Amino acid sequence: MLRFAKSTCFLFLSLSLTALGAQNIPEAFTRLTDSVLTQKPTTYKELDRFLRPYRRDSVLMNYFIGQSLGAGYLDGLSYSYNQLGTLNRNISNYEKALEYHKKGLNAATEAENIEFRIFSLNMLGVVYRRLDAIKTALDYNQEALRLAETIENPSTGIRRSKNVSLNSIGNIYQALEQYERALDHYRQSYLLEETLGNTLGMAINLQNSGECLEAQGKLDEALEYFERSLAFDTEINSVRGKAICGNSISRVYIKQGRYAEAVELLNTNMDMALSTKDQHIIAPAYNNLGWAHLKLENWDLAEENLTKGLETAQENKFLRGICESYELLSDLASERGDFQNALIYFRESDKFRRQVTNDVNIKYVNDVIFRYESEKQKEVAQRLRQENEIVNLKLKRNQNTLLVGALLLVLFSLVLYTIFRQNKLNNEKKVLALEQSRLRSQMNPHFLFNSLNSIKHFIINNEQKNAVHYLNKFSKLVRKILEASSEKDLNLQEELDTVDLYMNIENTRFKDEIDFEIHVDPSLNPASIKIPSLVLQPFLENALWHGLSSKKGKKTIRLEVTPKGPDYIEIAIRDNGIGREASEKLNLQKTLKRKSLGISITRERLANFSRVYQNSFDLRIRDIVSPKGKVEGTEVLLKIPTV
User: Fold this and answer.
1) Cβ atoms 171, 182 nearer than 8 A
2) Max alpha carbon distance in the chain (Å)?
3) How far apart are CA 540 and CA 558, in angstroms?
4) What is the pLDDT of residues 60-112, one digit of tens each?
């Protein structure tokens, strides 16, 4: 059913893009597109051979997407979606980049193309790392590396993707200040890129290695790596690469006391950095220039550039950039004798530094990588044990004692494995039953029946526009619920979009009597916060049918998301309904009683998430009581960890 819905959506989007995108497309590219769709290559290398000159043109890539949708060419869709994702990532439009890379991953998964699937996973890991979402980034890169290592004879595309995975995991170690591990991954990736003759990959690994050496205080070695990287970037004329190397070399100059040389290089490099439109390059360029002027005691120029660096980092939520800007502004204020502001800036810098390298992130990363490496070692050890047992059995067939011992060992292992397997199956069944119950609570018969009746009502009254509008919303909600039901968690933004659509549909049947609002604290980034999937809808349904359905007059529901310390958020759902006690009395009087199964299922799911992530989730439901003791509604408070 879900695949049919996707196919229908693809066909509709294809017709739209074909109609709108055929205009102003060069004839040479339309002929090239027709040729690609005829051949339908299935590897990245083959597709890139045709489309590489055009992959940075969003108009042409969108045209190719439209044609691929119409032809059902999923491999081409994955390629072009990922190119658009990279375009948006390079201009720091990360939410759009994530959207395109996820579409690329979905297309690759449906096409069962493991090469494009690995590529998409790596690209998602890169974007999440840019957003400092270290846990999520590691999940994607680790999964990409695992898949790549399952292929016995990998293609060139898969080999390159493996190099990207190694480099990305190195970046995560570098972010956590575990430089020797990071350098080890960069060296592995560099050597593999060298065998492929990939100059850009070699330049990137040299640049990353230089950053680790610089952080260790090995400035001369770091400068050597940066200059080698710059030589490769100059050879292939990579503007982004040259801008990044310019930033790094100037930073080493500053640390070596070569302030005037740093300012000269940075002034030359600034136009190149700005031309990339990549805020991840621009922010440190401003910070470095401000730092160099600070050392030369050019206070005003230092403040001007550091302020620009801070504003750029804040606009894009670059935690490390914000931390660096505040630290340098603290030094500047101290040099000027403004010790009050110096202390304020220092505290801000320390706060953001703790957010980047908190203990929970480090523990999570180390645990995941340890599990991955341990599993690899166990597989190797198991194969060696099996081979050794075969040799020993052939050499000592007549030694009955050894044979009996080996048989007993195998039997004991089978018993242990059977017990383990049975426990695992029981746990999986329990989780599956819970998720199925959760899905049934989201798609309850009352909601489906009432929604279809509303559509029938519009059709009978010849309200075609209303019927189509309502049906579109209803089908979109059903699709979101079905897609979310396959995920254990979603980001907060997707969850809020789903409940907003659900309330919009329900409000239509309530004749738009309900005033529903969602408010998210501006300091939060909903796209980077993960919560259990479809966890909010049962509370909204409860508020509608138990709190507001019997209330007269104005009806309101407010959903607020606020931070509670550095590691938690609180989601509050408040209605001005009749309260829990009055609702229970009314429900007892009804012939057909509505059971709030969704709430009990949600409690079980939260308890399950608590065990899996080793964090605490807190759920409280209480009546809102006025100072005079009158019940004025119900409040649901849900406390969810963000790390």
Assistant:
1) yes
2) 92
3) 10
4) 999 999 999 999 999 999 999 999 999 999 888 999 999 999 999 999 999 99
Tell me, what's the pLDDT at 355?
Answer: 75
Length of the chain: 643
Please report the DSSP string for 500-566 in residue order: HHHHHHHHHHTTT-EEEEEEE-TT--GGG-EEETT-SHHHHHHIIIIIITT--S-EEEEEEEEE-SS
When comparing pLDDT for 404 and 234, which is higher? 234
Predicted confidence (pLDDT) per residue in 302-324, tens digit: 999 999 999 999 998 888 889 99
Mean pLDDT of the chain: 82
Q: Which domains does the chain have, with CATH numbers?
A: 1-176 (1.25.40.10), 443-641 (3.30.565.10)
Residue 387 identity: E
Determine contact, residues 365/139, Cβ cutoff 8 Å: no
Q: Are 104 and 44 in contact, with CB atoms under 8 Å apart? A: no
Q: What is the pLDDT at residue 516?
A: 92
Cβ atoms of 42 and 65 within 8 Å: the answer is: no
pLDDT band at 13 (very low <50, low <70, confident <90, very high): very low
Residues 115-163: tens digit of each pLDDT? 999 999 999 999 988 887 777 888 899 899 999 988 888 888 888 888 8
Q: What is the DSSP letter of 152?
A: S
For 177-216, letters b (16+ CB in 10 Å) and e give: ebbebbbebbebbbebbeeeebbebbbbbbbbbbbbbbee
For the chain, how far is it from start to end, CA to CA, in angstroms? Answer: 35
pLDDT tens, residue by residue, 324-370: 999 999 999 999 999 999 899 999 988 888 776 665 455 555 555 55
User: Which of helix, strand or coil describes residue 106?
Assistant: helix
Give the whole-angstrom CA distance, residue 278 versus residue 286: 13
**Beta-bridge partner residues of 164:** none
CA angle 282, 288, 289 (to 5 degrees): 90
| Beta carbons of 104 and 85 less than 8 angstroms apart | yes
CA distance 524 to 520: 7
Helix axes 359-395, 134-148, angle to 10 degrees: 20
Q: Centre a 10 Å sphere on the Cβ of residue 91 and count the other Cβ atoms it contains.
A: 14
Q: Of 490, 543, 482, 545, give the one whose Cα is nearest residue 517.
A: 543
The SS3 call for residue 620 is: strand
